[in-house]
Amino acid sequence: MTEELPHPYEKFLRKDRIPHIWCEGCGNGIILNCFARALDELNIDLNQVVVVSGIGCIGRVSGYTNTDSFHTTHGRPIAFATGVKLANPELKVAVISGDGDLFAIGGNHFIHAARRNLDIQVICANNFIYGMTGGQYGPTTPFDTWTTTTPYGNIEQAFNLVHLAAACGAVYVARWTTLHTRWLTESIKKALQKEGFSFIEVVSQCPELFGRYNKMETAIKMMQWFKETSEVQHFSDPAKAEITPKRIVVGEFVDIEKPSYGRLLREMKARVAKKK
Amino acid sequence: MTTASVSVEKKGVVRSGRRLFMSGDVACAEGALAVGCRFFAGYPITPATEIAEHMALRLPETGGVYIQMEDEIGSMAAVIGASYAGVKAMTATSGPGFSLMMENIGLALMTETPCVIVNVMRGGPSTGQPTMPGQQDVMQARWGSHGDYEIIALAPSSVQEMFDLTVEAFNLAEAYRVPVFILADEIVGHMWERITIPDAESIKIVNRKKPTVSPSNEFAPFKPDEEDLVPPMAVFGEGYHFHATGLTHDERGYPRTESAEAQTKLVQRLCNKIRKNKKKIIRVESAMLEDAEVAVVAYGIAARAALSAIRKARATGIKAGLLRPVTLWPFPEEQVAQVARRVKVIVVPEMNCGQIVREVERAAKETPVIFLPKLGEEPHKPDEILDTIRGRLK
Asked: In the list A266, B118, B142, B333, which could disulfide-bond B363, CB 3.0-4.6 Å?
């Protein structure tokens, strides 16, 4: 009889929720794995972690993490996280959600949380489409690619998320693909320790939908695309880091120090208390 | 907690002995502070802005947080987040913002989040008349978010009640884990009146039930107590590692998107926790109803005009009385039905094209109900109501 060995990251998962709902070959599991690894390596007290997600495939991630977790309405995880973090600054609040959730319906909350330099970590799984609803184009779908709602090719320009995050004031901005697991884990660790608003974009494969519509119908083919076109360029100009079928610039783009909203709020409260 | 009466001598408050003079909006903010609200997320909107301004001034003094969000969608989401982090939280808005909040009001219902939403009603639809009063959102408060549910809504008709009912709204929200609405109107929000702020010790404060079990892998965050159908509430950071979602879920908080049983069980309980506790929740006020032949059913500012009309009617020998629903939702159906059985006619003045009157008609059964609509800048004049009372009793 063989003894069943526990998975090293088992304690980060709600075992009673596994198997997950994600498709074979999906990149979400890799992102969850890197997140768990980062928590583990930092030895963070899981009682103090809150994972917040929105709607979409990656939105289900909050249901799998063995922490306090909340699955919000579509597009609202950052706004929800704002309330959590301000009401209890001791908590580590991580938002993990998708490109459509964070940048289409939830775009307003993203830009304002970044502008405020709110102390939260935002991890975006960018799979270029709305996966949960069957593969429609979204705000990050590259120009001239195919989805179920761009049957004649996508004529919209895609958001360059790292440029957007940097312009809005994020103190830490990085982009990796699901192929760059060690880099990604290190970035998540950095983000979790950073004061202020940090943003990590993870270019992730959806072979089932984006892949199938764009001649990359397996995870291997999609990750081959990441492998062949990604260039690690640390601290390059995020404005020039658009994702195209031919080039995916990855790396850290921003890592600066700036007083966070939480710090300024504490200072303001102290001033008010003194005045009284 | 600070004693509200000590430190309210700020912008917008005039003191006279134990009595203060302030606007309804400021009284609402003070009521929230007095009951322990320590988080406000909002977006400026007429005629509710003064609530936000006063909270921005006062919350930092009490150790609380005021944040101005990017819109009302975000405000409502932040309020839910703060409540789940263990802090009493509120927002205040008017019609257009109320519409935007509907999405996350649904989330608050589904995740049983105690919170208070103040709607200082103005004229609608759409941008409507920002500085003019209305009572046009009472059905939206009841049905505005999608899906089936029950909520609680209170209708203040004075500055004193803006304070008192805000306290009560928080207590109900905490007791039943439900978003509670204050449905005020522009007049009640903007008018200044004398108000007595009770001593801190005499203010009744209800706090949400806490789980009595220790954190474990079997913890069920949405398992209700049998008695009131309300689950004790764990909050973030206590070690429970619980999950909450806007999806249909089981008692563990886990999504059950394909189970008819889970859907039935959850949605029925969400409705029943209000329906079955109706007697404890509903509050009405009545005046001169004992021998009344005509009853006026009115709420908010319209009830003030109604009371004046009733006094005038009595002075001329007409037996009129007032029934004022302080609780608009759940609607005091039985109270209206009781009155309807005793009177010849019911008059309902409302600042809309007919909303609560439908509920009154439903409860009144055979008793005739006359509706007095009012739109625009002024509330009903007592004489308009009086004329209707007279006309019907001839």
From this structure: B333
Shared-domain flag, residues B176 and B291: no
Q: In one letter, which amino acid is A36?
A: A
Question: Tokens in use for B189?
Answer: 């929000």
Max CA separation in chain B (angstroms): 71
B108 in a structural domain: yes
Is the sign of the CA dihedral A226, A196, A118, A45 positive or negative? positive
Q: What is the pLDDT of residue A241?
A: 98
Model confidence at B18: pLDDT above 70: no
Q: How far apart are CA A133 and CA A147, in angstroms?
A: 12
Whether the complex's predicted ipTM is more than 0.90 is answered with yes
Residue A269 confidence (pLDDT) above 70: yes
Q: How many domains does chain B have?
A: 2
* Residue A2 is assigned to a structural domain of this protein: no
The domain that holds A150 is classified in CATH as: 3.40.50.970
State the pLDDT at residue B21: 94
The answer, yes or no, to whether the previous bond of A6 is cis (omega within 30 of 0) is no
Cis (ω within 30 of 0) for the bond into B330?
yes
Question: Residues 6 or more apart from B374 whose CB is under 8 A from it?
Answer: B302, B349, B350, B351, B352, B380
Q: Tell me: pLDDT of B113 over 90.
A: yes
Region A179-207: what's the mean pLDDT?
98
A3 inside domain: no
Secondary structure (3-state) at A183:
helix
Minimum-distance CB partner of B69 among A48, A63, A79: A79
Measure CB to CB from residue B241 to each of A66, A75, A82 and give the nearest one. A66
CATH number of the CATH domain containing B51: 3.40.50.970
Q: Given the structure tokens 């609560």, which residue do they identify?
A: B356
Chain B residue at shortest CA distance from A66: B241
User: Does the pLDDT of residue A252 top 70, yes or no?
Assistant: yes
Q: How far is A81 from A53, CA to CA, in rounded Å?
A: 9
Q: Is residue A276 scored above 90 in pLDDT?
A: no
- Cα separation, B349 vs B375, in Å, equals 11
Q: From chain A, pick out residues whose CB is under 8 angstroms from the CB of B67.
A: 82, 86
pLDDT digits (tens, 9 = 90+) for B290-316: 999 999 999 999 999 999 999 999 999
* Segments forming the whole domain that contains residue B35: 4-202
Of B143, B168, B202, which marks where a domain is finished?
A: B202
Give the structural domain span for A257. 10-275
Cα–Cα distance measured from residue B80 to residue B78, given in angstroms and rounded to the nearest whole number: 5
Q: Which residue of B has its CA nearest to A48?
A: B237
- Mean per-residue pLDDT, B247-266: 97
How far, in Å, CA of B158 to CA of B245, rounded?
Answer: 38
Rounded CA separation B108/B78 (Å): 11
Residues B322-346: what's their mean pLDDT?
98
Q: Identify the CATH number of the domain in which residue B296 sits.
A: 3.40.50.920
Q: Please list every residue in chain B whose beta carbon sits closer than 8 Å to the beta carbon of residue A47.
A: 237-239, 241
pLDDT class of B335 with cuts at 50, 70, 90: very high
| CA dihedral (B380, B384, B386, B392) positive or negative | negative
Q: Is residue A1 part of a domain?
A: no
Task: Decide if A98 is inside a domain.
Answer: yes
Residue A4: the pLDDT is 81
Inform me whether the pLDDT recorded for A2 exceeds 80: no
* Residue B273, domain member (yes or no): no
At residue B10 the predicted structure's pLDDT band, cuts being 50, 70 and 90, is low
